[in-house]
Amino acid sequence: MLKSIQIESFFIEIGELTYFARRFFKELFKKPFEFNELLKLCYSIGNKSFLLVGVTGFIIGLVITLQTRPTLEEFGAESWMPSMVSISIIREIGPVIIALTFAGRIASGIGAELGSMRVTEQIDAMEVSGTNPFKFLVVTRILATTLMLPLLVIYGDAIALYGSYIVENLKGEVSFQLYFNKVFNAIEFGDIIPATIKTFFFGFAIGLVGCFKGYNCKKGTVGVGLAANSAVVFSSMLLFIIDFVAVFITDIFFEI
To answer: Are 60 and 89 in contact (CB under 8 A)?
Structure first.
């Protein structure tokens, strides 16, 4: 009985999220366009995540290289390290881990912010005053996360490759030019384009879930914490689903 209730509530939430996404696309092309608020949020979201993404990317590059190098040394294949690490980071590891980090930082923040506005009746006050709160609060935040995450992933991938180069330089005395020549010789458009495209969907999912949980927050101040927590959990789960679909489609069209 309990499982059936949980399954039913899960599908109800999926339906509500789908309706929320439909409303986003409906409001997206309506005037007025909140360009100033969008630019403000892009700067805020990017600035808040810049250091975190950089540190995350740097550690990714260090750890992957340190963990993989001993195995390749056993087979005398150290020269394959730049190619292997670059493809792994750009195709999968970089986008997914940075998106999860971004979700933990941004989805929870959006959920808590909009949840606080909901329980303190600020959103209701905006509706009474004639302002469209969905357009001003939700559409701008979803657009900001959709636009900023791909840029942060590119930045994080670059830092990760530099972290990998540092290990290779210390362990194998590989020069900067040699390392990145091997990296760029290994990378193809079939690696970069699908990985970049899916980060737009990652950003959209993170913004959508964070706004959905915060905008529909209930149960007073307790609900704010629940909205922030569930936004991270739900968006993380959605990222893995999107990633699976993206890899499946990429395998068909780009023949990885």
So the answer is: yes
Residue whose C-alpha is closest to residue 232's, from 202, 210, 253: 210
Residue labelled with tokens 């679909």: 245
163's tokens: 């972290």
Distance CA 68, CA 79 (A): 12
d(CA 8, CA 190): 40
Contact 162, 58 (CB under 8 A): yes
CA distances from 65 to 15, 86, 163, 179 (A): 43, 10, 9, 13
Give one DSSP letter per residue of 137-148, joined into a string.
IIIHHHHHHHHH
Taking only the tens of pLDDT, the chain with its 256 residues reads 545 656 777 777 788 888 988 988 988 888 777 888 889 999 988 888 889 999 999 999 999 988 888 888 777 777 788 888 889 899 888 999 999 999 988 988 898 888 888 888 888 888 787 778 888 889 999 999 999 999 999 999 999 999 999 988 888 778 888 888 988 888 888 788 889 999 999 999 999 999 998 888 877 777 788 888 888 888 999 999 999 998 888 877 765 4
Asked if residues 231 and 214 have their Cβ atoms less than 8 Å apart, the reply is yes
What count of other Cβ atoms lies within 10 Å of the Cβ of residue 131? 13
What's the one-letter identity of residue 170? L
